[in-house]
Design a protein that fits this description.
homodimer; 143 residues; Arc Repressor Mutant, subunit A; 6 helices; DNA-binding
DNA sequence: AAAAATTAGTTGATACATCAACTATGAGAC
DNA sequence: GTCTCATAGTTGATGTATCAACTAATTTTT
């Protein structure tokens, strides 16, 4: 009855996650963006003016973390925060000119990153990978 | 030519990783261990007296992080550090009595965690999941 | 309208991943 | 033996994830 605490699907998923992040970060370094900041920017390139709360919901991230990432992006000069006049609790996030221009280079870059991750896999394999990952997700039942 | 920066295999793997970690942490909370601390303990339950460097290598973790995790485990009273007399640069890590006893409860717990993660999947599906994850790994080429 | 509950966001704390700079020790070349 | 290089570990910094406690504003209840 051997058991392999260091070599199981959970650990493998964690390792692959870190390696993907490392790769993505290396591809984004030139734009002064990290993988997670890039997700926020990607949202804003599609729907500018959404609130921090919407960002947190869509990215399934903790609102505390979103507050801090937004702060970092603001420091970098890519976004602008504005209190919503209709609901003063809410903060709407807008792109700056720099932030908007950044998309021209980063969006094509993102497309090629996404393609590379599943390079050499058939549509069926990608679907199967998704299905099996969803099965694991269901098993640990965090939703 | 749509592109889905927020819904691709990379993001899914990241999400599943976080959910697995969250589940594992919930199962380990009673033992005052986190998922990563548990990996170090699991190593020590098998090979007591290995060095921090061996721990870092086997867990593929940065040595800086290992230093800090070892420090935390020492504070918790589960391990003991001892400078190697043959190589004074090296620190050997030993279990305390508490740390050794902890294994009696945690090891069975770990086995059931590992089983649960791939519950309801056939051997072939688990192998296919591994294979596809290794393919992604190869694609991002961080090794 | 006043009280109670909910919501948006902030701040603080802890943990992990990663990189860079550093110290101390050891090993190999000569 | 000394000089050079490599190795083990530490410390500091930044970024992300998560939880808890908190403020301020809004919505619901009564």
């Amino acid at each position: 009855m051997e058991y392999e605490p260091l070599d199981n699907i959970g650990v493998l998923i964690h390792t692959v996650d870190l390696e993907i992040t490392s790769y993505v970060n290396s591809q984004l370094a030139a734009f002064q963006l990290t993988s997670e900041q890039n997700l926020i920017m990607a949202l804003l390139w599609k729907h500018e003016g959404i609130s921090q709360n919407e960002i947190a919901t869509k990215l399934k991230k903790d609102k505390a973390g979103v507050t801090r990432m937004i702060f970092t992006l603001e420091k970098k000069g890519y976004i602008r925060r504005e209190t919503c006049p209709n609901d003063k609790r809410s903060v709407k996030v807008y792109l700056t000119e720099d932030g908007r221009k950044l998309g021209n280079d980063v969006i094509p870059n993102n497309k090629s990153i996404i393609q590379l991750i599943s390079k050499g896999m058939t549509k069926e394999e990608i679907l199967e990978l998704r299905r099996l990952l969803m099965k694991v997700r269901e098993n640990v039942g965090r939703s």
